[in-house]
Amino acid sequence: MANKILEVKGLKQYFGTAKQPIKAIDGISFDVYEGETLGLVGESGCGKSTTGRSIIRLYDITEGQITFKGKNISEMKSRKELMQFNREMQMIFQDPYASLNPRMTAGELIAEGFDIHGLYKNKKERQARIGELLEAVGLTREHANRYAHEFSGGQRQRIGIARALSLDPSFIIADEPISALDVSIQAQVVNLLKQLQKERGLTYLFIAHDLSMVKYISDRIAVMYRGKILELGSADEIYNNPIHPYTKSLLSAVPQPDPAYERNRTRIPYKHVEHDPAAKVIEARPGHFVFGTDAQVKDWAK
């Protein structure tokens, strides 16, 4: 078994007032292992992007513990520790239009991290490194002098990926990196991420709502709903043997490229019920975890 690179325990992220908190994340726990891709899926507003942003310290967490490479990230106070953490963990954002400064060239965008961390001060070395990163994501060195508006959506996302790679991180949070792209471009970007993972030994937390794409890229999948992780297991296990009714409902909505199947496909509606106070995380099968009571999980597993 690979080493744990990230451990999340009892993570809570509340917004609003103490009297009326909005529970964006309500006590979730999971691990991510070196070299794997953990897919985090769920509908809009379930808390999956907030989870990613909390892990990378864009938000101060309300409660819980996030341990990265054996260190509690909430206890990192010194500038040196924080700088090292920021080099090790990077994020690819959802919207390639909003996440790139239109006043900066592609080269300047990629080199922002160099300036913050004091790297590649030699102009020649810097240009060579920018060129390498552009080529690594399928662009050319000539693209370094173009501005964001001169690129297509897919190309912009490639610049976002090059920027995330610029500091040689070991862990990347991909926050819905393909949802704003055309379907034909989505597959190219996902294949690029898989290739980069293989070449650079990267670990991904891949956040998305498209289950078919998540199955393609992920080793394991966590299904999130209303701030809770309801089911977690290997990609094949979640896809072929779902247990929680919400996971079954999500899977029933995935379209298939088969007209005969599509004509007969029946959606399984999910009726929201408040979580039972006795609900807990249960290992229903080896490595397959479900959130519910013993009686519920037994009933769902039938």
Automatic annotation (TrEMBL):
Pfam families the record matches: ABC_tran, oligo_HPY
Entry superkingdom: Bacteria
Alphabetized CDD domains for the sequence: ABC_NikE_OppD_transporters
Stretches assigned to the ABC transporter domain: 6-251
GO MF annotation, one: ATP hydrolysis activity
Alphabetized UniProt keyword annotations: ATP-binding, Hydrolase, Nucleotide-binding, Transport
Enzyme class: hydrolase
Keyword Nucleotide-binding on entry: yes
Protein name as catalogued: Glutathione import ATP-binding protein GsiA
Source organism of this protein record: Solibacillus isronensis B3W22
